[in-house]
Amino acid sequence: MIMLNMWRISWLNITQNKKRFFISLLGIILGIAFVTSMLIADKTTNDVFEYYEQMYVANADYWVLSDEHTYSEDVVTSVLTSSAVTETLLALDKQAFFELEGDQSLNQRSVRITGVNDQNSSLLKLPVIEGSLDNEGLVIPDVVANLLNKEVGDTIRFADLGEAKVSAIVEYTQLLASPSDWEGAEQKSFRIMAPLDLLRDWTGMDNELSYVRFQTNNEGEKLFQSLQEEFRNSNVYVQPVVADDRQSNDIGGLYTFFYLIAGLSMFISGFIVFNMIYTSVMERKKEFAIMKSFGYLQRSVSRLILIEVILLALIGAAIGVPIGVWLGDMFMQTLLSVFEFDMVYTLNWQIPILTAVVIGVLFPVVFSLFPIYNAGKTSVLLTLKMADQTHSSKSRYIFRAVLGAGLLIFAFIDHPVSYLAILASIILLFPFLLLGVNRIFKPILKLFFGYSGSLAAKNLTQQLNRNANTSAILAVGIAVILLLSAVIESAPEGYENEIRNTYGGDLRVTSEAAWSNQDKAKLLAYDSIANVEPLTEATPITWETIDGEKRQFSIFAVDKEGPILFDRSEKEKSYNELTKEPSILLGERAFDEWGGNVGEYIYINTPSGKQQFEVLDVVKTSNYSGYVAFMDEHHLNNEFGWANSFDMLLTLNDGYTGEQLRDQLWLDYSNHLSKVETVEDEIKSTTSALTGMNELILIMLVLIIGLASIGTANTLLMNTLERTSEIGTIRALGLTKQQVKKMIIGEGLLIGLSGVIGGIISGMVLLYVTSQSKLLAGFISFQIPLGNIILALIAGVSLSLFASWISSATASKISIISSLKEG
Amino acid sequence: MIKVKNLKKAFIQGQARTQVLKGVDLQVEEGEFVAIMGPSGSGKSTLLQLLGGLDIPTEGDILINQNNLSEMTEKERTIFRRKYIGFIFQNYQLLPTLNVEENIAFPLHADGSLTMEKHRFILELLDSVGLKELGRKRANLLSGGQQQRVAIARALVNTPSVLLADEPTGNLDRNKAEEILGLISRFNRENNQTIIMVTHDIFAAGFADRIILFKDGVIDQVISRKDDDYAKYVANFMA
Ligand SMILES: Nc1ncnc2c1ncn2[C@@H]1O[C@H](COP(=O)(O)OP(=O)(O)OP(=O)(O)O)[C@@H](O)[C@H]1O
Ligand SMILES: [Mg+2]
To answer: What is the residue extent of each domain of chain B?
Structure first.
C-alpha cells in the first residue's frame, strides 16, 4: 500500500512538467532503441557469419587435399575404409563454360562445377529453395537461376562437356557463391554442383578427386596423425576443416563500430537523464529539506528519486526496445546489402533485448546517482539561504582547464587509450570553447537578433557547465562519427595502395595444370605482357594460435628475385633470413590472430605433418585480405612439402589493362585455365563494402546528432524552466514574446554551433592521431571529410534550432504574473 | 489620465475560482500621485498588475491616456508597457545575471533606445538612489534594500508617464525611504508623472495626493491628503 503510494507520487513528480517528461523520455527511448538495435546487429551479424561458416564446414572434421589439381581416388582408400570414419564426401572441381545464346564473353561464362558423390551428405548442407537433391541433376544457386532464367527441370549446357537438368535451386552458400549479374561475372566465376559420376563422365577424369571430406568418431585425432604420416611423401595431405569468419572478412571492425554507436547513444541519453534528475532535484531542494526537517532519513529522499528514475527507465525500455528491434532489422538489411552477399538472416533478439532492458534500467540509475547523492545532502540551512551554487568556483575551472589541456598530450601518444583521453579532454575543455564561440558569435547574434542576441550570449554563461556538457556531447558524437567516416573514406585508397604494392603483378592467372615452359613463352609473346612470374601458394593450410585455436591460411613462396608480395623496409634481409632455417613471415592479420611474438614458433599442419616454424617477422601485405604467411620457396618445397605451382603473376606493359587481356587468356588457355584475377578486381572487391558503409555512417551521423539535439532541447528546457521568474520579469519589463523566443533560439544556436565546431575540431584531432598511429601509418591519410563536415554542420545547426524552438515556445508562454509570484 | 471601469479579476486554478477584484472603478488624473493601502491579500498587487498590462482583466476596462489595454494585442500591450509604464515590483525582480547598470538599462535595451545621453541619465539615477559605487556589481549580490533601489531606478529610466510601484519602500529604513519617496515625488512634479503606489506604510502614503483604501477586492474609501485627520483615519482602517 505504502509502496504503491510511492510509485504514484513518483509518477506525479516526473510528469509534472509534460514537456520535460516527454523530452527526457524521448531521449531515453532513443538511447535504449539505439543500444538495442546495435546489440541485435552485433548478435545477428555474428549469427549470419556463423551460419554460413557452419554451412561451409557442415559436419566435416577433416579433408584430404592435394598440391596438384586432382589426385587418384586410390590414394585415399585408407580413409574410405577406416573404421574411424563415419561419413565421407568425394568432390571433383572442374572449370567449364556455360553454352549460352547471348553474346557473353568466355570469361563471363566461366563456371566451376563441383562434382560430389552425394548431394544429400551431412557434410554438405545445401539450403534448397526449390526442387530436390536427387543426385542426378545440377544444383545451382538462386542468383544463377535468375540470371540464366532457369527453373527446376530446365537444361543447362556446358561448352565441350555436355548438358544436364537443374534438379535443385539453393540459397546463398559459400560453396556456391556466384555473381548475380554479367558485370560481376567479369570478375568472378559462377559455381554450381553436379553429380560426381556425371562430371567424371563428361571429363573422363574417371578416378580423379579434388578433395575428400570426412567425419570421424572419437578415433579421429589418431586417424589424422596416422594419415599425416601416411601422406608425408605423397602429393596429398590431410587438414582439419576449420571455420573462422575472420579468415576472409575483416568484420572485427564492424563489431567495434556497433559498440561505439551503442556506447555513444548510451552516453548521450545518460546525460539527458542526468540533466532531468539534476534539475528536478534542484527544484525540489526545499521540499527535500522540509521532508528532512520532519525526520525523513536521507535514504527515503534518495529512494523517492530512485523510484522516479526507475519508473522513467522502465517506460523508456518498454517503448524503446520494440523500436530498437525494428531499427535493428532495418540496420541489418542495410548492412548486408552493403556486403553484396545475398545472405539471409534471422534477427537474434532474445539476448540483446534482455541485455538492453538491463542496460536501459541500469544506466539511467547510474547517471542519476550524482543528483541523488546531492539530494541526500540537502541541508535545511543551505536551502533556505539559497546560496548561489550554480557557479563553480574559479579554482575548479582552473583545475578543469589544466586537466583538459594535460590530457591533450595523449594526442602524441600512439595508443588506443589516447582516443578516450582526447574525448575526455574535449569534454573538460568545452566550457572554454563555449565561451570562445560565444564571444565570436555574439556580435553576429546581436546583428540578427538584436538585444535578444546579447541576452542569449549572456545567459549561456549562466549554466556554463550544463550548456558546455550539452555541446560537448554533440561534439563527441560528431567527432567520433567524423573519424569513422574519414577512416572509411580514406581506407579504400589505403587498401588500393597496399594491394597495388603487394599484389606482385597486374594479373594473377590460375590453372588446373602446371604451367609449362611453352605456356610461359606464349604468354611472354603477348604484346601486353611485360613479365611473367610463377607464384606458389600453399592453401588451405591449418595452423594454431598461441591459445591452441585452429586457423587456416595460405602460405606464399617468396624469394629475392620474385614478385613483391609484402611491404617491408628491410626486404633484402628478410629474404636472406628466410633462406637459412625453415622459418616464416606472418602477415599482420595472421600475426595478430596468432598472438605470439617475433622469435617464437608457430605450429602448422604441413603436407609433411605437423611442424613448427620460427616467426621471423610481421609484414604488411594485402594478400589476400585474409590470414597469410610467407616462406622461402626452397623450404616450402622440401621441409614443408608443397611442390606445385599453378599460378602466374603477369605484369603488363604500359597502356594495357587487365580487362582487355582477360578475354584473350580465356580463349587461349580455355582447356586448363581456372581463374583470371586482375589487381583491379581485388581492389574493387575489397573496397566495395567500405564505400557502402559510408552511407550507413551518414545515417548514423544524422541519428546521433538527432539524439544529441534531444539533449540540447532538454538542456534548454531546463534552463528555461529554471529561469521562469527571470523570463517573466523581462516580459514585464517590455520584451515581447518574439524577443523572448529569439533569446532562447539564440542560446540553442550557440550551443549547437559550439557543438558542431567543437566536434569538427576534435574530429580532426582524432583523425590526426589516427593518421599518425604506427598501426595505420600510410593507410589512413589525413584527409578532411568535407562532405560529412558540411552535413554535420547543417544537421547540427538545424536540429539545434529545432530543439531550441521547442523550449522557446515554452518560454514565450510563461505567464508574467505567476512567474512574478515565484521570484 | 487613467480610467478604470468596473474592473473584475478572478483566478481559476483547476476547479477553484478566486474572485480577487470585484468591481473596481477609479480615475487618476495626469500627474496625480495616488497611494493604495489595504490589508494583505485584498488584491492591491493584482490591481497594479492589471494597470500595467501584465495580465488581462476578467471583466471591465482600463484606459490609459485613452488607450484601452483590453483592446490591445499582447504585443501592443508589451510595447505600450515599455514605452509609457514603469513598474516597481513588490519583490524587486532584478535579473540576477546582469549587473546593476545593465538591470537599470534593460527597458531601454528592449526597444533599442539606449543612447549616450540615456547612459548619463542612468548614472544620474544611480547617484540619486545612492548606488553610485555599485554600478558594476551583479544584482544578485546586493542586499535587499539595495536591490529595491535598483528596481526603482529601473522603473524610472524610460521616464514613464505612469509609474506603478508595489511597496517601493518596504525594505528600507525610514531615512532611505524618505529619500526614495522624495525622488519619486520629484519625478512626479518635474515630469508630470502619474504615480500609483501600493504601500503599508502610513508615512509613505503621506507623500501621495490621494489615498485609496482597498478592502476585499473593492475600493472601500478614498481620502485626500488635504483631509485633516487622514493619518488617524488610515491607522484605524489598517488596524
Ligand atoms: N496568479 C494567482 N492565482 C491565484 N490566486 C492569486 C493569484 N494572484 C493572486 N492571487 C490571490 O489573489 C489575492 C490577492 O492577491 P494580491 O497579491 O493582489 O494581494 P495584495 O493585496 O497585494 O497582498 P499583499 O499586501 O500581501 O501584497 C490573494 O488571495 C491571492 O492568493
Ligand atoms: Mg501585494
So the answer is: 2-238
Per the domain annotation, does A39 fall within a domain? yes
| Model pLDDT, residue A387 | 43
User: How does DSSP classify residue A639?
Assistant: I
Do A123 and A218 lie in one domain? The reply is yes
In tens, the pLDDT along A503-514 reads 889 999 999 888
In the predicted model, what is the mean pLDDT of residues A271-291? 76
Q: A483: which 3 cell numbers?
A: 573519424
Residue A739 touches partner B, C-beta closer than 8 Å: yes
Q: What is the CA angle A783-A787-A791, rounded to 5? A: 130
Query: How many angstroms separate the CA atoms of A143 and A177, rounded?
Result: 9
**What would the mean pLDDT of A73-86 be, rounded to a whole number?**
90
Looking at the fold, whether A511 and A650 belong to one and the same domain comes out as yes
The two beta strands, A537-544 and A138-141, are unpaired
Atom of ligand 1 nearest to the CA of B39: 25
Q: How far is CA A499 from the centre of its chain?
A: 21
Which of B49, B75, B140 is the closest to A736 by Cβ?
A: B75
Residue A389 has a pLDDT of 46
pTM, full prediction: 0.78
Tell whether A291 and A382 lie within a shared domain.
Answer: yes
Amino acid A227: pLDDT = 92
Are B106 and A738 an interchain contact pair (Cβ–Cβ within 8 Å)?
A: no
CATH class belonging to B2-238: alpha beta
Those residues with Cβ within 8 angstroms of residue A512's Cβ, 6 or more apart along the chain or in another chain: A69, A94, A95, A646, A672, A673, A674
Report d(CA B214, CA A641) in Å as an integer.
113
Ligand 1: lining residues by beta carbon, under 6 Å: A 817-818; B 11, 13, 18, 20, 40-46, 90
Residue A416 domain-assigned (yes or no):
no
